[in-house]
Amino acid sequence: MRIGELSRRTGVNAHQLRYYEAQGLLEADRGANGYREYGENAMLRVKQIRRLLGAGLSSEDIAYLLPCAVGELPELLGCPDLLTAMRSRLKRLDEQMDRLARSRDALADYIDAAERTGSASHPPCDGAEPVPA
């Protein structure tokens, strides 16, 4: 099938499909006319890619994981290297979440302190730019 048909059947635009191909996530043959020709397994591969992207994985992570992907969900075969890579990614996500939680708590503390000092009764801070929302 050509890229337009794959796009229609998966709901993924052609630009993204070309990106997946450039990242080594999706393979296409070239017809005599130069058009991309995808096999029937391309639909399953695109679904796998989309679900893995939805899990917060990078295209680099996905390129590493796809050879171990089975089915639409996909289910990943648990080879030791794969498990090590996924645990590493999970650890990075946990660290990011911890940093974000600390930042959120600090900002909430600043807001609470500003509200306690009666910000409505004070004039605007001289020269201070408002914090963007």
UniProtKB/TrEMBL annotation:
> GO MF annotations for this entry?
DNA binding; DNA-binding transcription factor activity
Alphabetic keyword roster = DNA-binding
Quick check: keyword DNA-binding in the entry? yes
Give the stretches traversing the membrane: none
In its keyword annotation, does this UniProt entry include Endoplasmic reticulum?
A: no
| Residue stretches making up the HTH merR-type domain | 1-68
InterPro entries given in the database record: DNA-bd_dom_put_sf, MerR-type_HTH_dom, MerR_fam
Q: PANTHER family from the xrefs? A: HTH MERR-TYPE DOMAIN-CONTAINING PROTEIN (PTHR30204:SF93), REDOX-CYCLING DRUG-SENSING TRANSCRIPTIONAL ACTIVATOR SOXR (PTHR30204)
Which protein, by its recorded name, is this? Transcriptional regulator, MerR family
Q: Which organism is it from?
A: Saccharothrix espanaensis (strain ATCC 51144 / DSM 44229 / JCM 9112 / NBRC 15066 / NRRL 15764)
